[in-house]
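Q: I'm a student working through a structural biology exercise. My instructor gave each of us a protein and asked us to get a predicted structure, then write a short paragraph describing it. Mine is GDSL-like Lipase/Acylhydrolase family protein. I'm not confident about reading structure output yet, so if you can add a plain explanation after the tokens, that would really help. Here is the sequence I was given:
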Amino acid sequence: MSPELLVLADSLAFHGPERAEPADHPDIWPNVAGRALGVDVELVAGIGWTARHAWQAMISDPRVWAAVPRASALVLGLGGMDSLPSPLPTAVRELIPVLRPESVRHTVRAGYLRAQPRLSRYAPPALPARLTVAYLERCRAGFAALRPDVPVVALLPSVHRAALYGGHHRGRAAAEQATREWAAAHGVRVLDVGALVAAHVLGGHGNPDGMHWGWAAHRRVGETLAELLDDLRSGT
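A: Happy to help. First, here is the predicted structure for GDSL-like Lipase/Acylhydrolase family protein. I'll explain a few features afterward.
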């Protein structure tokens, strides 16, 4: 079996400067890292995914089951969505696309998108930091039960300037601290994404949505991840 990176992530892993891209796009950060390390990549990700979604993928997605035996590292690229303000609970928000009839769905979606930037000033994060790390730990522990000697990497939350959230991101500091503490307690390697992409995103060099990245940021994150996992490249 060929070694590979198993990456569980949100849309920052596959969304580029203009649009969401296919999982085999060479310039998204998981593939930049895989290429630098000389391994394949299994990317399991979704738009709006939180750490809870990653745990559901761990226990229900057969792509993950197939990837675990050959994984050379597990990368948890979650937590950014968790820390963003969410005027509606995630489970409720995810029901909007299935509302019927169509006219009701369009009305509710348009109203929510209009209200979200204003409500984000007061809204709690999509997941409290304690729940984010609880789900990350479930992912880590489940993986470690089968592959105890394989490294795990967690990405810290990114930054944004998205009008959709009114520029608010109060939950980020707590999410970063909780993730760092959890990682230190369990031997998880940490990649500080916010530090890597802040100038790019806040300087307006990424996607016009103010959240997703241009290719320069993808390249920097992927290359830094490869450096963090350099022991895989050296075979030690």
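A: Here are two points you could use in your paragraph. The longest strand covers residues 71-77. Residues 4-85+120-234 form a domain with the Rossmann fold fold (CATH 3.40.50.1110). It's a good idea to check both against the output above yourself.
Q: Great, thank you!
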